[in-house]
Amino acid sequence: MRRIKRSLPLIAAFALSVGPVRSAAAADVRSELLQRGEYLTRAADCVSCHTAPDGEQFAGARAFKLPFGTLYSPNITPDASTGIGRWSDDDFLRAMYEGIGKDGQRLYPAFPYPAYTLLSRDDVLAIKAYLFSLKPVAKVPPRNHLTFPFNMRWLMVFWDWLYNPGQRFEVDASRSPEWNRGAYLVEALGHCGECHTPRNLLYGLDSHKKFAGAVTAGWHAYNITPDRTTGIGGWSEVELARYLSTGDSPHGVAAGPMGEAVDNSLRYLSREDVAAMVTYLRTISPQTSNVPAAHLEGARNGPVSASRLPPADELNRLHASAGVRMFAAACTGCHGWDGRGLAGTRAVNDPEATNLVQVVLKGFHLSAAGGRPNMPGFAAGYADRELADLANYVTGRFGAKTSTLKADDLAKRRSEGD
Amino acid sequence: MARLQINGATHEVDVPEDMPLLWVLRDVIGLTGTKFGCGIAQCGACTAHVDGKAVRSCVTRVGTVADRGITTIEGIGATPHGRALQNAWLSLQVPQCGYCQPGQIMSAAALLSEVGSPSDAQIDAAMAGNLCRCCTYVRIRKAIKQAAASQATAQRT
Amino acid sequence: MNARVSRRHFLRTGAVGAALVLGFRLYAARPASAETSTAGLAQFTPNAFIRIDSEGGIVLVVDKCEVGQGVYTSLPMLLAEELDADLDQVAIVPSPPNEQLYADPILHLQATGNSTSVRSSWTELRRAGAAARQMLIAAAAAEWRVDPSQCRTERATVIHDGTRRQLGYGALAAAATQQPVPQDPQLKQAEQFKQIGKSPLRVDLPGKVDGAAQYGFDVRLPGMLFATIASSPTFGGKLNSLDDNPARSIKGVRNVVRIGGQGFDVGGYKLHLDDAVAVVAENTWAAQQGLAALEPAWDRGPNAHLGMDDVVRALEAASDRGGLVARHNGDVDKALSTAATRLEARNYMPFLAHAAMEPLSCVADAREDSCEIWTATQVQARAQGIAAQVAGLPPEKVTLHNLISGGAFGRRLELDGIALAVAISKQSGAPVKLVFTREQDIRHDLYRPFYHDRLRAGLDASGKLVAWHHRIVGPSIFARWAPQALRSDGLDPDAVDGAIQMPYAFPNLLVEYVREEPPAIPTAFWRGVGSTHNAWVIESFVDEIAAVAKQDPVQFRRDLLGHAPRALAVLNLAAEKSRWDKALPPRSGRGIALAYAFDTYLATVVEVTLSGAGLVTLQRVVCAVDCGSIVHPDSAIAQIEGGTLFGLSAALWNEVTVRNGRVEQGNFNDYRTIRIDETPEVEVHLVSSREAPGGLGETGTVAAAPALANAIFSATGYRVRQLPIIKSIEELKRRA
Question: Any idea which fold C15-201 has?
């Protein structure tokens, strides 16, 4: 197989996907650059990480709780003193490709430069042009809190040797242009592997388990390989495309970080680009993981009637289990006793109930799907034991395997994520 | 244009199919007995029946209930369970502000249609989704039992 | 005739009645209508509460808002009792706005609150009924030329047994207007009551079980549009910019309205509204969709970083200041310095939202020269006043149709919904129904204050309480709501309500108040008002002192009471009915609280069990109540049942917290409310009494939290000093 280093045709494709080609007047060239930069900035989902809750867009200061401390994203607005207003093109390229900041300090790979390093120079500079067109915001993020030795930035030199490919995307001429575009979107701009590929002890992505699913900051980014039982092999192309564009699917709904990715990034992609991503995802090598993607044969989760009443065995547990009571009170209004919208999703099939717990705690609201579906969060009003009981009830009744969460597990989950 | 069968009458409504049944009932058709309380299926004030089952009309898209039998608080009195419940509600003077009570009665009617003589646990399971900020729960429980008993008596005689 | 306009003033115009019947009708068996009352019939209107026309239509006016407490039945019962008409013979209409005619004698305002409805009306409405009856009798006696004392009345008819003649009130209406208004009408003795003390079906209930009852949320007018609203997410934020187009492109959306932040003053009542954006549409759903589509750019303003730490720190700092002395008996410092045992406590009570089942709503039709509003308000005249200000009209051009309310709990003592609805209608050129989403309702409420209390007590060597020092730190609601109610030095009587008139006789007592306003967070009355706060603090501390003194909580309270026979009676009754001395299983406990609030004595016993995880299960509640004379006993019981559970619910779970200048809670998922499966048995025992009536609407709530906290102490040994109780769950888990 021969690989040709060739990225420009792809850019042209993106430019076409943004809007009609205009005349060559200078203002329009600039406007096209900015439009393309905006599209790429969205595809790269810069805003999700570089915006704090309640904070101004791109002004940074969002906290990332990692196993070795807390990092805060920097301000990437063009403010001269607190943002990146004084960065040259080369400064910006070096950060995106090598993970090195303007003053030469090593950046941490919470910033996905090992993915962005695949981007073409023109695309990176279009992103920069767009960022520089934004309103400068003067804001200094809080200081990072990292434990030794991770607070030694220079050690990242070794990490980069191991995990930063440090090269641009190469078109695979044996594949269709659509596949190549999908690969570029998934691997480079969308940096999907940052969440969906498990990390090793050194926080590097485990290339042997690419896209096999991983837990980060309290959320499980599921297996997105074509494996039929634990990946997305059972999803139709239409379902996948709709999921990427709206977050909604019969197999489950995007919540947490994936919900953000849909709302802030994926929903803005053109139909062609979404189709390209689907094409590429279909071809990655299947991996097996521990969360079944659908009903398992023999799971005790057959459909029950749309009754206002649970089956007798659960009725008997009603007063013994805070979880059954909470389900009766707060969940049956939408899910019924037959678990509509729950059965068959990986959230309830996961024996750790990772995402189930996060969704119960924080809820979700998908702007991309017009605010529907959505779910309220229950963190504030309910005790850990009640929520643990609820998760155990829901996984046992509608999932593949009963989770065995205790109140302490819930306390820990509460502190994860944002 | 959706065709709705509500309390035995047919209504043609020109609304988006994702509009919640609640707002179709209240704002388009003018049946205001079904109440808005939360909009997220947490309070039960909007409970109506679709084919005899209780649904939260605030999260039920009208497109999913076209041509199905919808019953609201305005029509439940025409059913034996509904009438018995309304009578019990009055005899025990259950309501205070009353705003949640249409939803309470609709949930209770769905319960009685499944279980003639519900136990406390069944009442809890079926009614836990209906909030009452005046906290009339003590009387709601009694009234459901009284309605059930009155129907049992009516059947015997 | 008395020239001064008063509540008992003879209303010759009939205009009040004509106007008020139009928008709302709520009837017992015999409906009267606006048409019959304005058809040129002779009207007998002996006072502001009764109108009888020549065809026998009897209209009774209720000047209180029906919020679920039953005033549409209990207040007409007072009138009807003395008038000698039965409830099935009368029509009941809400009073129009009129501060002179309908000012509450306790509140000095036309207002429904502070559990005054029956207390204020007990004598006054009976006198109104009796005066009318006396005039009708006099008219009949004159007609028949008999001695009035030989006439009797029954079912709206004057009867002269000697001549077997009788005339209905309608036939007497014209003649009765010629009779002088008796200044001191004879009232019935309690033994003569035919209605008071019975529990007829509340007149508002039939419509509440079949969907016919009309709340503000349900009003429909020709050409009416529907609006929903989002205010600045942060307190004091400003709308920087707004692109209307995303909303206007949604089918059914008619208008996008910007509402600038504004302050109002209605007769001393102050209200501040933040910037807001409203979407007006052909139905509520389209309006909500339109609002969701908008992305207003908010300047988050000066409170963008406000959090609970700021609130609590400020209160704690203020607690080190000396306060205004609300009450001082004896010498507390000396008693404390010589006490054998000294105790101290700090208590914290959170901000709370009202979260009535019916979210705030108001229909307004603001026109060039007039304005009509349909809503439920606890302050009718002020509602008219603020609508007039917003509409730019004199108050008399504003017509209020006051409807029943789907709960209030104090929320409808505020006028934000009315001001907003009028503003939106005015800008939209159409009648508009403004309905709050639940999120807007909770996040833009005015909140029960966060209070911080510091207490000190001293016991002598025998375990007797010899010193009590209570310092209350928190905001003043009255300073905003009715500054005329403040003591001249600024003492807020609500803040110290329940703290200075305890049933106990403490020899050395000092109660102080330190006013400390939370930054930017508006505060308001909430069910049980000052007493709910102070009873929790006081009854928890009394319980704590009893434990230190190694005395039984009931006996310790008995010993503290001094001469307070009514308090003692409810205390003993609650202990007896709850089987106070009976042993409980492990991890279970009983707690008691005694309260004197709104002229009612109440003792509540709560029984709880804790799970190994520290979860509290309510097992049983027993209340003993002496509220004096009772108009409608079944409603009295209902108020105590519901009020107690309401208080328990809030004590277990509720707090409103602020982070980055915005309220964190928004709906019933995070503002939890007790449900039927969590509801224990509730027994209410009423003490028979002929004393003047006490209030009931809020009283149950007052004793709930302390009884629960004391039960938890009894079960676990853990003293809850901070509400809600769910915040102490780790501690409870350790102890359980």
Answer: Aldehyde Oxidoreductase; domain 4 (3.30.365)
* C37 pLDDT more than 50: no
- Write down the pLDDT at residue A384: 95
Helices C699-716 and C529-548: angle between axes, nearest 10 degrees: 30
- State the average pLDDT over residues C427-440: 97
Res C159 pLDDT > 70: yes
- The residues with which C317 forms a beta bridge, in sequence order, are none
Question: What would the CATH number be for the domain defined by C216-302+360-435?
Answer: 3.30.365.10
CATH 1.10.760.10 fits A312-415, yes or no: yes
CATH no. for residue B33? 3.10.20.30
Q: What is the mean pLDDT of residues A379-407?
A: 94
Full residue range of the structural domain in which residue B23 is found = 2-75
Q: Quick check: B108 contacting A, CB < 8 Å?
A: no
Neighbours of C716 (CB within 10 A): 23
* Exposed / middle / buried, residue C160 (Cβ in 10 Å: 0-12, 13-18, 19+): buried
Q: Detail the residues of A annotated as belonging to a binding site.
A: 46, 49-50, 192, 195-196, 331, 334-335
Main-chain phi, psi angles of B102, to 5 degrees = -55, -45
Neighbouring CB atoms inside 10 A of B45's CB total: 27
Nearest CA in chain A to C667: A376
Cα(A237)–Cα(A239) distance, integer angstroms:
5
B81 and B65 in a single domain? The answer is: no
Residue A319 has pLDDT above 90, yes or no: no
The answer to whether C300 contacts A380, with C-beta atoms less than 8 Å apart, is no
Distance from CA of C113 to the nearest CA of A (A): 29
Identify the band that residue C331 occupies on the pLDDT scale cut at 50, 70 and 90: very high
> Both B33 and B58 in a single domain?
yes
Cβ of C672 and A382 within 8 Å?
yes
What subunits make at least 3 CB pairs under 8 angstroms with C?
A: A, B
Measured between alpha carbons, how far is C626 from C692 in angstroms, rounded to an integer? 11
Task: Supply the DSSP symbol for C280.
Answer: E
Q: CATH topology for A172-281?
A: Cytochrome Bc1 Complex; Chain D, domain 2 (1.10.760)
Buried b (16+ CB within 10 A) or exposed e, C313-331: ebbeebbeeebbebbeeee
Domain chopping of chain C, boundaries: 15-201, 216-302+360-435, 309-351+447-735
Of the three residues B50, B75, B100, the one that is the final residue of a domain is: B75
- Contact state of C729 with A383 under an 8 Å Cβ cutoff: yes
What is the reported pLDDT for A295?
A: 59
Amino acid at residue number A285: S
What does the alpha-carbon distance between residue A283 and residue C339 come to, in Å, rounded to a whole number? Answer: 83
Residues of C in contact with A329 (CB under 8 A): 675, 677
The yes-or-no verdict on residue C302 having pLDDT over 90 is yes
Whether residues B19 and B30 share a domain: the answer is yes
Binding site for heme c: what residues of A are annotated?
46, 49-50, 192, 195-196, 331, 334-335
Regarding whether B105 and B50 lie in a shared domain, the answer is no
CATH of residue B151's domain is: 1.10.150.120
CATH of domain C309-351+447-735: 3.30.365.10
Do A380 and C671 make contact, defined as CB atoms within 8 angstroms? yes
Please list every residue in chain B whose beta carbon sits closer than 8 Å to the beta carbon of residue A364: none
Query: Of A309, A330, A374, which is closest to B125 when you measure between CB atoms?
Result: A309
Q: Which of C614, C670, C678 sits opposite A377 (nearest CB)?
A: C670
Confirm or reject contact between B52 and chain C (CB < 8 A).
Answer: no
Pick the residue from chain A with its C-alpha nearest to B41. A333
Q: Give residue C357's pLDDT band: very low, low, confident or very high (50, 70, 90).
A: very high
Number of A/C CB contacts below 8 angstroms equals 54
Q: Dihedral, CA atoms, C99, C105, C108, C114, nearest 10 degrees? A: -110
Average the pLDDT over C109-119 and give the result: 93
Taking contacts as CB-CB distances below 8 angstroms, the residues of chain B near C635 are 93
Would you place residue A24 in the very low, low, confident or very high pLDDT band (cuts 50, 70, 90)?
Answer: low
The model's confidence at residue C736, banded by pLDDT at 50, 70 and 90, is confident
Residue A146 — pLDDT band, cuts 50, 70, 90? confident
Neighbours of chain A (3+ CB pairs under 8 A): B, C
Residue of B nearest to C281 (CA): B27
B151 and B84 assigned to the same domain: yes
Number of domains in chain B: 2
Nearest to C675 among A329, A376, A386 (CB): A329
